[in-house]
Amino acid sequence: MTLFPRKLFNDSLPQIVLKHQLYSVHDDKTMVDKELNKLREQGELLMFQLGFDADAFGLVFAADYKSKVLAGEDGRATHATVERFLKKLPSPCTELSFNKDQMLREFLFTDSEITQLVKSGVLTVRDAGSWWLSIPNSGKFTKYFIQGRKAVLGMVKKSKYNEVLKAELEERRTTSHVKFHMKYHIHDIVGAELVESIPTTSGTLLRFVDS
Q1: SS3 letters across the chain
Q2: Which end of the chain has fewer CB atoms < 10 Å from its terminal CB, N or C?
């Protein structure tokens, strides 16, 4: 979490970690999933479908999410509706999306209030009659994330034999396309299996995976 660049977003976003980044920290995916599910079931963690990839799930601490959302709503006309939505959000919330029936009957929101929630960014349209739970103002995060991923992968591809030592990549000077900490992107490309991690006597070698 400490690698997340809060200042880049004027501290308006909760700290976001992608689920697959954790796979680069621990090899046992089953154990990672188990621990994450436990935290979600305890109501401590929320999971979001980030939209740019079917397998890209963002993880955010529930308390951090709620406080950042409310801070962003300060003085806005949608504040009361958003606050009510956050209070009605199940704890634990293990769902990634909500359908119209849930929104109208369980949460007791009107169509116009649902529109307000979409406008505020806590919901995004999934399809006709259902919405993803979402992180307001995360479009900039997604843009910088994808931009940085491409740039860092490009560095690996441009290296001799499409491979580079992880320690060397961490120290590389970055271009303006890389807004996040280099380690944040390395956890991404390793966890998403866009590069292969090979242990060597000189340290971990990252090799580009030609898909």
Answers
A1: CCCCCHHHHCCCCCCCEEHHHHHCCCCCHHHHHHHHHHHHHCCCEEEEECCCCCCCEEEEEHHHHHHHHHHHHCCCCCHHHHHHHHHHCCCCCCCCEEEHHHHHHHCCCCHHHHHHHHHHCCEEEEECCEEEECCCCCHHHHHHHHHHHHHHHHHHHHCHHHEEEHHHHHHCCCCCCCCCCHHHHHHHHHHCCCEEEEEECCEEEEEECCC
A2: C
